[in-house]
Each structure stands twice: as structure tokens, then as C-alpha cells.
Amino acid sequence: MEIDNGVEEEEEEVFGFSRNYFLAKELGGSGKKSASKLSDIDLVDEQELRAAASDIEPKHEKEVVALVNSYRSLFPKWVFDLRCGFGLLMYGFGSKKALIEDFASTSLTEYSVFVINGYLQSINIKQVAISLAEVLWDQLKTKRATSSGNLPKVEQPFSSRSMDDLLAFLNGSDAQDKDCFICLAIHNIDGPGLRDSETQQYLGQIAACSCIRVVASIDHVNAPLLWDKKMVHTQFNWFWYHVPTFAPYRVEGMFSPLILAHGNTTQSAKTAAIVLQSLTPNAQSVFRVLAEYQLAHPDEEGMPINSLYTICRERFLVSSQVTLNSHLTEFKDHELVKTKRHSDGQDCLHIPLLTEALEKLLVEIRQ
């Protein structure tokens, strides 16, 4: 009898729990839905949020410095790997930007180094190939001048060639000398500006060229999915190195919007300043001419390209229209400058920043 009472109590408890569960679901479904929206949240100013993040005290500084310094002992091996035809792929927690730049500036001084900032939002891969071809052509001219040899004339400028022609030149017979060696340093080869399939295919073809060696970093957990077996083992020919630095992604993070944060003019100026600082001094000076013109003529639709060329040539910032176009392509790829059609039909250049942000940007790049 006592056993029967125990069973009945247990069944009643289970039944009561089930009934209460369905009753709660019923009542919840009939209740009023919340009218709150994500847009109603009072977001923190992005500059304030970034400032708070930068105030976080770093930990284990001595150990991190010792770890990064230990990678310096690998520099000679990395150079040997590159000379053997391998590409170097750096992975591990923390920004590898400073490490790769340190390696390039100390151990690759005999070679030309071309840098791609993959963390930028948009990159023109054809312009990369054009720039590499121009660097290689200059190397070949210098070498032939010292050896009293003659180079064939370039039939057409590299900027007007197809991608296939550029790749053929980079992989041509004249480029197979080991002295003609160009290192392509790619910060975040898995970044938003390089992540699409077509760009990765072109990067693989560039890496497979006889005179090109690639040193790259990855940070996304799914980065290896960007490549197939042929790209990994035949084109990039990766030699993987685990080099965690535990360094904050300060530069890389500047180009990614923070969650729960509003942007402002100060942040826009700082972001543009970081992009400009990665360009050559001449490119910065050309941009400064355009910015000063825009501030002095706020009512105009933009600066005519012919006017910009005239001023830059007078100040010895460019030697030809081709050089200016190369700078403008970089500006457009980094979304620093946009082209507008003037009312009289000519193309004008416009910096898409408010006056306040543009003034702050000029201050930033003068420092």
C-alpha cells in the first residue's frame, strides 16, 4: 500500500510539471510582444569604446617580448625557405604585422619588398600585378645597365595590359634569374579585401611566378578553406609557421566596425590617416594637395584631374600622368577618393569626408 502511494505521488508530480509547462507556454504566447528594437539601444561612441579598449593594461609583457624576440632566430631559415621557392604562411594568435615588417626590413634588404594590406576593405589585384611588373622591369633595366646588355622595348605600358600578359611577364624567361627576386608581403591574406575566390586565384598565380615569393599572415579560423590542393602545394607552396605574438590587432581592427558602437568624424580621420601612412610620401603629398583644394573650395563639386596634375607636376610630386593615375588608383582602392562627373562634363576628384574630419586628417598626416 505504501508503494502504491509513492507511485501515485510521483505520477502526480510529473503530471503537474507537464501541465505547468504547457500552461506557461500558453500564457506566454498570449502575452504582448515587446516593442523594443535594437535601434533603441543607446550605443557607445566608437572613439570612446576604442579608447577604453586601449586603456586595458597588457599582461605578461616581458614574456611576450621574449617570445617575439625568439622568432628572430628563425629569420635566416625563413630567407632560406624563400630562396628555395617556398611561401611563408604565419599563423597564431596576435597580430603578425610588426613581425613580418621586422623580418622584411632586417633580412630582405637585398630584395624588393611589396606590401599588401589585406585588412583593407577593397584591393585592386590587377593594380598589384601592374606594380609588381613595374618593379621587376626596373630591376631588369638596372641589371642590364650594369652588364651592358640590352632589354627589349616594352610594346605597351603595363597599365594597359591584360592580367594574363602581366602574369606571363612576371613568369617570363628574363625573370628567372635569382637576382630578380620580389617578396610579396601580405598582411591578412584572408582579410576582407582579398577573401573572394577570384582574387585568391590570381594571388595563387602570382605566387607561382618564378620571381615572386610570398610571406603572408592569416587569422581567420577558416582561412585554409580559401585554397584548393593545387593552390596550397603547387602555387603558394606554403611553409607553415606557428608564430603567436599575442599582440593586439590595433591597425587591422581600425578598419572593422566595433559592435555596439557609433562612428564619428574623429574615427574616420584616424582610419584614413592609417591608410595614408601605409602609402609612399609622394602619394601622401598628392593627397594633401587634393585635400587642401577641397577645403579651400567647399562649394565646388571636386578638383579637376587636370588641375591636380598641373599642381603636382609643378611641385615635383609626379613626373607624368601615369604616375598620378597610379596614386589615384591607390586612393580609390582604399576608398579615400571618389570620382564625380562635373556639370561641364569633366571628371573631378572628391574626398568623401566632412570638413571637420578632413581638417583632422591633415593634422594627422602632418605629425
Keywords:
367 residues, alpha/beta, 5-stranded parallel sheet, 3-stranded antiparallel sheet, globular
How is the topology of this model organized?
Elements lengths: L1 H29 L13 E2 H9 L6 H10 L4 H9 L3 E5 L5 H11 L4 E6 L7 H22 L16 H8 L11 E6 L9 H11 L4 E6 L11 H7 L2 E5 L7 H4 L7 E2 L2 H13 L3 H16 L6 E2 H10 L6 H13 L4 E4 L5 E4 L4 H12 L1
Parallel strand pairs: 1-7, 2-5, 2-6, 3-4, 4-5
Antiparallel strand pairs: 8-10, 9-10
Helix pairs in contact: 6-7, 11-15, 12-15
Radius of gyration: 28 Å
- Provide a count of the helices: 15
* Helix coverage percent: 40-55%
* Biggest sheet features: 5 strands, parallel
Order of helices and strands: HEHHHEHEHHEHEHEHEHHEHHEEH
Residues in β-strands, percent: 5-15%
Description of the structure:
50% of the residues lie in helices and 11% in strands. It has 367 residues and is an alpha/beta fold. It has a five-stranded parallel β-sheet, sandwiched between helices. Strands 8-10-9 form a three-stranded antiparallel β-sheet. Helix 6 runs parallel beside helix 7, helix 11 packs parallel to helix 15 (355-366) and helix 12 (281-296) runs antiparallel to helix 15 (355-366). The protein is globular.
Concise summary:
The protein is α/β, with parallel strands linked by helices and about 375 residues long. It is built from 15 helices and 10 strands.
